[in-house]
Amino acid sequence: MGNLASRSFDPSTDLLDLKGKVAIVTGGNTGIGLATVRHLARAGAKVYLAARNESRATGAIAQLEHEGVEEGRVVWLKLDLSDPRDAKKSAEEFLKRENRLDILVNNAGLLQEPYTVGPDGVTSLSTVNYISPYVFTRTSLPLLQQTAKEPNSDVRIVNLTSIAHKFVPSSVKFDDVEDFNTTFSRTIYPSMIRYGHSKLMIIVWTKTLQRRLNADASAPITVTSVHPGGVDSFSHKLPFARLFKFLIGLAIAQPDVGAYNSAFAAAGKRIADDKKTYRGVYLESQPTGRVAAPNPVALNEELGEQLWKTTEAFLERIGV
C-alpha cells in the first residue's frame, strides 16, 4: 500500500530543477532523512546533511557518491539537537559557510524513549523534536528571508511531524514550559501520546511561523508540516532481513518512497505553481502531498501564539 499510494509522484520528474540552490536536511544520515538528501541532491541542490555523528554522516555521503551523486554536492554539518545551544551553534556555522538557503527540512527527531527531563527542565523528547528545530530555524531565518527576497525565489521550510499528533487530547495547553513535559500517564499508551504531543507542537509552530512570515510580502516563504507515512527503517535489523523487507514492503514504504512527502514539500513543482494553497498546511502521504486536516487543536491561533511566547521565554531563560 505504501508504494502504490505514492505512484502519483515521481521525484525524477516532479521536483524543481534545484541547480544553484542550497538545502539543509537534519538527521540526513539515515532513513527518510538520507532519502530526502538523495532526492534533493539528484535534483541539483547543494545539500548540507546535518547530523551529530561524523563517521555516520561521511559514510552516508560516501554511499550517495557511490550511487552517482556528484562529489561535493552533499556536505556534512554537525548538528546535535539534544541541546538547543548546540542547535544554535550549528546554524551559525552554516551561516558562515553559505550566502543563501532555499530549503530547510527539519527531519531529525526521536521516536519514543523513556521519559527523561534534561538539565534545562524540559524532556528530551520535547527538546529534540521541537525546541532545537525551533532554534535551528530561528537562527537560519535571516538567510532564508534574504534568499526569499530574490526575484522568482521559492524558499521553503519543511517540518516533519506525525499522524500520532491526532491522538493528543484537546485539553492540551502551552501556558508554561511545564506543559512541554506532560506525562499523559492516564492515557492507554503514554509514550506514544508524548511523542504525538511533541509532533503536535511542530504543527502548531509551523502554522504560527507561517502567519508571522506572511506579514512580510517581500520575502515569501512556504512552511509546511509533513507526515511521511509508514516507513520501513528497521527490516534490515531483523533475522531473514531480505524476506522481511519484502513482506513489510507490501504494507509500508521503503525510506526512498517514504521520503516522497518530504521531497514534495521541499521542492515539488505543484507547490511552486500554487504556493498560497500550501502555506502553513499539514500534508499526509496517501497520495503524496495531500493537504489534510490536523488535530483541531492545531488550528487554534491563540494556542499557537501561547506556544511561541512560552518557547521564547524558555530560550531567553537558558540564554539561547
Quick gist of this model?
With 320 residues, this protein is an alpha/beta fold. Helices cover 43% and strands 12% of the residues. It has twelve helices and eight strands.
The H-and-E topology, N to C, reads as HEHEHEHEHEHEHHHHHEEH
Write down the Rg: 18 Å
Main sheet, how many strands, which sense, barrel?
8 strands, mixed
Which term fits the overall shape? globular
Mean pLDDT: 91
Q: What structural class do you assign from the helix and strand content?
A: alpha/beta
Distance between the termini: 44 Å
Strand order of the largest sheet: 3-2-1-4-5-6-7-8
Percent range for β-strand residues: 5-15%
Q: How many domain modules?
A: 1
CATH superfamily: NAD(P)-binding Rossmann-like Domain
Low-confidence stretches: 1-6, 232-236, 247-251
So how many helices? 12
GO molecular function, one term: oxidoreductase activity
Keywords: Oxidoreductase
Pfam families: adh_short (PF00106)
Family: Belongs to the short-chain dehydrogenases/reductases (SDR) family.
